[in-house]
Amino acid sequence: MSDSKASIGDHPNRVYAVQAMRFIHRCAEFRSKDEVESVPAGVRGIYVLLHHKPRLRKKYDVVYIGMARKGGGGVRARLLAHRRSLKKGPLWTHFSVYSVWPNIPDTEVAELEGLFRHIYRRDTRANKLARQKTFGLLRKVRKNDFRQWVVIAD
Q: Per-residue b/e over 5-35, b at no fewer than 16 CB within 10 Å?
């Protein structure tokens, strides 16, 4: 059974597989920059470039949040390009990868990446590479007046 699924069952001879998460299939976190080549080719999902703070032991600052879509070599190719980059290369020491399930379309991966980067857009402590001006799709659904919100029942 996959390490990303939990088993449950109502019969001793029957096992049912349940997805642990809707979007994320697997993840590897806080891996050294030296391990980039170990990431399997073609992995799609969200990745984070991190800078380790050795004096603070298990603390990492987010340098950049990115995504890898179908084609183009996946997360590994993106990480290798960032490692060679004169701009981003020296800024990160570690990375995390959040691989999505095969049935998750690239548009949903892009939405997740946009949301995460949008969150950092006004964070004064965030690295300038992790920030962006705004995520356009969020602008279309923004309603800051909670009285305008309508709760949609399942």
A: eeeeeeeeeeeeeeeeeebbbbebeebebee
